[in-house]
Design goal:
Layout: E1 9-12, H1 37-46, E2 50-56, H2 67-82, E3 90-94, H3 110-119, E4 127-130, H4 133-142, E5 145-149, H5 152-159, E6 167-169, H6 172-186
Helix pairs in contact: 1-6
């Protein structure tokens, strides 16, 4: 019999949302969690959201690092989050160059659909958090609400756009608190 349990999830971007956006994070020691990330993810975990990272990692195609090294970077990230009592349920990444025209590069929804199928996620009960408009576009493509972490890059993208996130937050913890409040309002 097929498992029919359906989960709510929060899809997270990595660079600029969870970790400092450094030029092609290519070594574990280059990964640094942003303030409040551990607390925010722990809150999502405690409130039974699946936490899924969907990230574009064209540094692989560009030769800055290998998929094996990316695994080590993500292992460090998981260890850093564990210090806050937080965990990631799954990580999906696009290793392709933007010019390749692949179907898995955000904002295209292929990786999100894979996670939805793998983890039996209900998109109507789920959210996407990121720091770019492509994350808002991904949320729309899969039928989730969107939260934008407002950093300098996000501010400049919002100036001349015709799509807007459902919520704007200064950091991941406040984004998580808003999501949890939204769930409470629906029940």
């Amino acid at each position: 019999m097929v498992n029919s349990i359906v989960s709510s999830a929060v899809f997270l971007d990595r660079d600029g949302t969870i970790a400092r956006d450094v030029h092609y994070c290519s070594r574990p020691e280059d990964l640094e969690l942003l303030p409040t990330v551990g607390e925010g993810i722990r809150l999502l975990n405690e409130n039974r959201f699946k936490v899924v990272i969907i990230t574009n990692q064209s540094g692989i195609a560009r030769g800055y690092f290998t998929e094996q090294m990316l695994g080590k970077i993500h292992q460090k990230m998981r260890g850093d989050l564990a210090q806050y009592g937080a965990h990631i349920d799954a990580i999906y990444y696009c290793p392709h160059h933007p010019d390749e025209g692949c179907e898995c590069r955000k904002p295209k929804p292929q990786l999100a659909y894979q996670a939805i199928n793998d983890l039996q996620i209900d998109c109507q009960q789920s959210y996407v958090i990121g720091d770019r408009l492509m994350d808002v576009e991904l949320a729309r493509a899969i039928g989730c609400k969107s939260v934008m972490i407002l950093n300098d890059l996000g501010k400049s993208e919002l100036e001349d756009c015709d799509i807007f996130p459902d919520y704007i937050a200064p950091d991941l913890e406040l984004a998580a608190r808003w999501i949890i409040q939204q769930r409470r309002c629906l029940t």
